[in-house]
Structure formats: structure tokens, C-alpha cells
């Protein structure tokens, strides 16, 4: 399995400080330990009618000029860029969207190893693609358009996919989304999909059961993975050979939580994912995120980082570093979360492969 991270310090409109490229570089190098490592970044299509203040609120004004780190950084030291192209216009604009995909590929195609077309189009979340008019067309037409555009530039090696949010019951379910995909001929959509990403935040935005009981973080993670592979993807004509990427996975440390609780939660989630990586064809894991958007925020999105907004590592940083450096195998010592939690939990989960 490949591992990676979103290195930025923004979660939607929440961002307390600008990024520090030097700190990002040092921390990513520490996590990767000289191994191949995926870097997740985002650019946004707003169309012509989105107010300027919305663009500014997402820090998206100069995305086509530069990403947070220098271009060369994304292809050095085994790093691989996973670039998300988000569709969030206030009015449907498919011609503009397809032209924007061409522009993004012209600008960043030489750096990119995987291109995600739309961000979580299965749920109508404000400032996320599922809330944008025309998003289903943007996804289904955008996948094949991006594939053709990359192939025309001799970038046959770039993987093209999309991501969905979890779990299926969240916000009332996403049955209409998958029903729509079931009506799209395989040759027009599924045949062009190289992977499907999953955004996984089971304990970030709603209460969960106590650890070790039904409905806890680990069991919700398992449910999301199995539901996507066994129920949703077949409806869209996507076969078992289509890899799943954990495109985003995070847990907050603020708003009544602690850094220890965050570490425990991530340990449970990653352990569950690793247990099922072979049987469910999960080939990539990316954490959201490196840095807190705002360590003092009361919003869950403010404290999803494994370092604070001043780049001070939390216990989860050591946990994730050990997992990456062990190639997805549980570390032999509890250098991350301590005691009954953390890497000890990962080790126990690695021995328990009894299913969901």
C-alpha cells in the first residue's frame, strides 16, 4: 500500500496561518523516511458567477499559478502528486468545467501521478461538489475527458478517478447518486475509472459508540469500506479490480477531544483499513491532514492535523510515521500512542482478520 498526506493547513474555510514550506518539507521527509509518499493537493473550478469572497474564503485565488510547495518538490524524493480538481460553481457550467480540466492538465499534468475528478459528489455538503449544480455531468463527462486529455499529452501513466464521502447513511444516504451512475453505460464512465477514493471521517462530525463496542470508530470504518466495495461500486459497473484509495482520513483532537483520543481513533481506523487492504483491494491511504487548520477552533475541521497549526507534532504524528516506515505493518514498539492504545492496538488488529 502507498501512504501519503494532505500537507496544507486549510480545511474548507478554516485556516489560521499561511503554510510554512520549510516546516512542511521537514515534516513530510520525516514521515516518509525516504520511501515513496503521496502528496494530496486541491484546485477548484468556480465558474463565472461565484462571488469573489467565496473564492477568497477557500484560499483559492492563485491555484493555477502555484501549489503551496514549489513544482519540483512534488516530484523529488519519491513524492507523487495526487491532484484533486473540485467542481463547485454556483451555476452549472459543463463546457467551462471541461475547459478548466484541460487548463489544469496543461499546468500540472507533468507533475501529477493521479488526478481526482470532483470531490465527494455523492453528498450535498456546502462548498463541496455534491452541492454544485450539474455535478453528476461534471463527474461522468469529466472522467472520460480527463483521460483523453492526459492520453493526448502522452501521460498514460496518470491514474484518473473520483472520490465519495462516507458512510452511506450520512446525511440521509447517497442512493440517488449511485442510481444515476448505474444508468451510465460502462463504456462512457466505468471503463475510464482507474480508482475510487473514499473520504473517511467516522468520528469527526457525530458521536460514536465507546471503543470496543458496536458502532465505534473501528466498526464504522469497516462498514464504510465493505459498503463501498460490495454494494456501491457494483452499481456503477466498477469491478473488484478497481482499486479503492482512502483519499482522506482524519480525526479531530479539539472540541472536547484530546490528542490522545485522536491518536487512538486513527490507530483504530488505520488498523481496520490495513486488515482489509488485500481483501477489498485498498491500495492507497492518505491522511487529512498534516497541520491543524486552527488548533484553537471549536469546529472539528480545525484540529484534524497530526501537528498543531504551529507545526508542533501530536502523538498521532509518531504513530503515522511508524506505520509508513514499517510499510503498513504494525510497528514493533509503541512509539506513537501509548499504553493500551496506538500501535499496540494496530498490532492486535493485525492479528484479527475475522472480517467486518
Automatic annotation (TrEMBL):
SUPFAM superfamilies according to UniProt: (Trans)glycosidases (SSF51445)
Name of the protein in question: Arabinogalactan endo-beta-1,4-galactanase
Native source organism of the sequence: Actinomadura chokoriensis
Disordered: annotated span: 328-356
Compositional bias ranges of the Basic and acidic residues kind: 346-356
